[in-house]
UniProtKB/TrEMBL annotation:
GO molecular function: GTPase activator activity; small GTPase binding
Record lineage: Eukaryota, Metazoa, Chordata, Craniata, Vertebrata
UniProt feature, compositional bias: Basic and acidic residues: 1-10
Gene name of this polypeptide: TBC1D12
Pfam family for this entry, one: RabGAP-TBC
GO BP term (any one): vesicle-mediated transport
InterPro entries, per the entry: Rab-GAP-TBC_dom (IPR000195), Rab-GAP_TBC_sf (IPR035969), Rab_GAP_TBC_domain (IPR050302)
Listed GO CC annotations: cytoplasmic vesicle; vacuole
Stated name of the protein: TBC1 domain family member 12
Organism expressing this protein natively: Phasianus colchicus (Common pheasant)
Coiled-coil stretches: 50-85
Database matches in PANTHER family: RAB GTPASE-ACTIVATING PROTEIN 1-LIKE, TBC1 DOMAIN FAMILY MEMBER 12 ISOFORM X1
Region of interest: Disordered: 1-24
Keywords: Coiled coil
Keyword Coiled coil carried by entry: yes
Length: 416
């Protein structure tokens, strides 16, 4: 060791220098490389001048002050996030009490009141969400849980016969026949594995895999005229997360029976074009600059809207945000789906104005993951669903009327 070597050479006992001799101008151990600025230079180098030592002390103090400032800022940020989270949880808890004790027991009388509509806009508490969605969507089709069981057993029979024949040709022949769309049962298997893959609950072996399979299978047997269409699995999955199995099926079938959903899922081109035309009326009204930018690239709404409408935003937006969109969609109907689309365009208007056709299409197909509900909903709130004093329903009705009159004028029977 150094001590023994010293003693052997000099014959004197080694005494370490006192701490004050080692570090004249530093009263603590350096906590980081930053503190090295205060150290004396090694003995073989010229000592620091007084000015340099003072400058270094000043630089060090500034660094420490900056670090402290950053730390305080971070702590404030963390506190703010926690405060907002607690506030949000308090709001959800108090809203839940109002929904459970006041609104749900008096649903028909209260659903359209201003107070309930405002509370609804804030987002439904997760514990009552499924119940409110069911009531708002309604059950015009009068489906009972028993009817669901009947169609589910029919779907199970189909699956069984598919696996028994296991002949690909048979399956292709059946799916080619328009009269029997139940063959789209095979498509379901493929699509389920792509539904909310990051949640891992709908994939094979996951807790909700069979449930999603059942609801979709029963629907294809209930509505062979519609069959299974890609995108449906996302809608059914959101319902399954919020409702019991039979209730999820009832809401699913009724939701898909609404005019807008029926038009899209049956790929009724003329109806879809009406929806796009109505959307463009409000697009031009609300975002004229972006509207012209899209027009200059011949970028039509079908490029991004189809995916949004098919999955009711559940594939495009984070799940909790998609559920909040669903909340107001259940309150306001199809109009809100298009208003949400305009809200998204408004939120990203500045970015989109800098982009060309390809980049816009890519951006709108895969929206940023950090999209927050506060920002999106303030943009949606700013969208005016009124054009020359006409609301969405009136604009859409006049487009339908124009179409019918156009059909009459073009009808050969009328001309002869």
């Amino acid at each position: 060791s150094i001590c023994n070597e010293y003693e052997a050479r000099t014959g004197r006992m080694y005494k370490p220098p006192p701490p004050s001799a080692r570090r004249k101008n530093i009263e603590f151990e350096p906590l980081s490389t930053t503190a090295l600025i205060l150290e004396d230079r090694p003995a073989n180098l010229p000592a620091k001048s007084v000015e340099e030592a003072l400058r270094h002390r000043q630089e060090y103090d500034e660094m420490v002050a900056e670090a402290k400032k950053r730390e305080i800022k971070e702590a404030h940020k963390r506190k703010k996030i926690m405060r907002e989270r607690f506030k949000q949880e308090d709001n959800i808890a108090s809203a839940m009490v109002i929904w459970v004790n006041e609104i749900l027991p008096n649903w028909e009388g209260m659903r359209a009141t201003r107070r309930v509509r405002e509370l609804w806009w804030q987002g439904l508490p997760p514990s009552v969400r499924g119940k409110v969605w069911s009531l708002a969507v309604g059950n015009e089709l009068n489906i009972t849980p028993e009817l669901y069981e009947i169609f589910l057993s029919r779907a199970k029979e189909r699956w069984k016969s598919f696996s028994e024949t296991n002949s690909e040709n048979d399956v292709e022949d059946v799916s080619a026949s328009v009269a029997d769309r139940e063959a789209s049962l095979e498509l379901i298997k493929l699509d389920i594995s792509r539904t909310f893959p990051s949640l891992y609950i709908f994939q094979k072996g996951g807790p909700y895999h069979d449930l999603l399979h059942s609801v979709l299978g029963a629907y294809t047997c209930y509505r062979p005229d519609v069959g299974y269409v890609q995108g449906m699995s996302f809608i059914a999955a959101v319902l399954i997360l919020n409702l019991e199995e039979a209730d999820a099926f009832i809401a699913f079938a009724n939701l898909l029976n609404k005019p807008c959903q029926l038009a899209f899922f049956r790929v009724d081109h003329s109806m879809m074009l009406k929806y796009f035309a109505a959307f463009e009326v409000f697009f031009e009204e609300n975002l004229p600059k972006l509207f012209l930018h899209f027009k200059s690239y011949s970028l039509t709404p079908d490029i991004y809207l189809i995916d949004w409408i098919f999955t009711l935003y559940s594939k495009s937006l984070p799940l909790d945000l998609a559920c909040r969109v669903w909340d107001v969609f259940c309150r306001d109907g199809e109009e809100f789906l298009f208003r949400t689309g305009l809200g998204i365009l408004r939120l990203y208007e500045d970015i989109l104005l800098q982009m060309d056709f390809i980049h816009i299409a890519q951006f709108l197909t895969k929206l940023p993951e950090d999209i927050t509900s506060e920002k999106l909903f303030s943009c949606i709130a700013a969208i005016q669903m009124q054009n020359s004093n006409k609301k969405w329903a009136q604009v859409f009705a006049s487009l339908m009327k124009d179409n019918k009159e156009g059909d009459k004028n073009h009808s050969p029977a009328l001309k002869s």
